[in-house]
Amino acid sequence: MSDIVVRNHVKVIGEGQRTIIFGHGFGCDQSMWQYIVPSFKEKYRIILFDYVGSGHSDISAYRSDKYSSLHGYVQDVLDIIEALELKDIIFIGHSVSSMIGMLASIERPEDFDKLIMVGPSPRYLNEGDDYFGGFEKSDITELLDMMEMNFAGWASFMAPLAMNNPDPMLSQELERSFSSVDPVIAREFAKATFLSDHRNDLAKVTVPTLIMQCSDDSIVPIKVGEYLHEHLKNSTLRLMKAKGHYPHISHPEETITLINEYLQAV
Questions:
Q1: Is residue 129 part of a domain?
Q2: Number of neighbouring beta carbons within 10 Å of residue 265
């Protein structure tokens, strides 16, 4: 157990009987939930962690072959669940963590009570006239090339685009997070994220799901949220007033309200 706790820099806080696991997105770590966690720690037991290669995780545990797809990150989540003997989990995942949590729930459905997805996407690439994910293959190639050639430049370009908020401090906070990740690991995580396709896995999900879709998200278009709602059984779609891809940072009050409404209603 202690190996996993150290490897993924796991923190357990809160008093409640029910358990929430917060999964951070690409280029981030558990600190990105700092505006959300205080509202839940009195009623819930909170599990925070960093994926291997992110934040204060044990970077020596990173292996390119393991983390070349999202399944390596899914294993991180399953290892934490097993180490802490967690049951009836509410998994709140941001961005790519939505799919990571979903895949973990498919593998171990008996351990999950609910999934809450903040800015999720099962597929970032467009596919002809059949699917609109928001990106062409050339966009992703350009992004990965930029990360390889000028990582600091990529971070300063990407942060304000993804945050989409007039407060420059929020974009700077995100840029610092991006810049703190090892460039090689960040690029491999980006590749695993943006080239993934988990549309065929949606039909396998049995856990009730809340989809939180921002109204103007440069990473995940509204059509993606609608696609998820259409293909996920027992799902609820909430279109947020918040803009950008990081509502838990830019609009924590709305994020907290929608999560609470969902947890109290079902």
A1: no
A2: 8
79 in helix, strand or coil? helix
Q: Please report the sign of the dihedral spanned by the C-alpha atoms of residue 78, residue 247, residue 244, residue 150.
A: negative
- Asked if 236 and 210 touch (Cβ cutoff 8 Å), the reply is yes
Domain annotation covers residue 138 = no
Q: Which of 140, 112, 94 is nearest to 252 (CA)?
A: 94
Residues designated catalytic: 95, 217, 245
Measure the N-to-C terminal CA separation of the chain; round to a whole number of Å: 32
At 161, which helix (H) or strand (E)?
A: helix 151-163
Read off the pLDDT of residues 97-134 as tens digits, 9 standing for 90 and up: 999 999 999 999 999 999 999 999 999 999 989 999 99
Structure tokens at 81: 């669940």
Distance of CA 91 to the CA centre of its chain: 10
Using the 8-state DSSP alphabet, how is residue 171 labeled?
A: H
The residues facing 243 across adjacent strands are 216
Domain housing 73:
2-123+198-265
Strands across the sheet containing 11-14: 11-14, 44-48, 18-23, 89-94, 112-118, 209-216, 235-243
Indicate the number of domains in the chain. Answer: 1
Tens digits of residue pLDDT in 185-205: 999 999 999 999 999 999 999
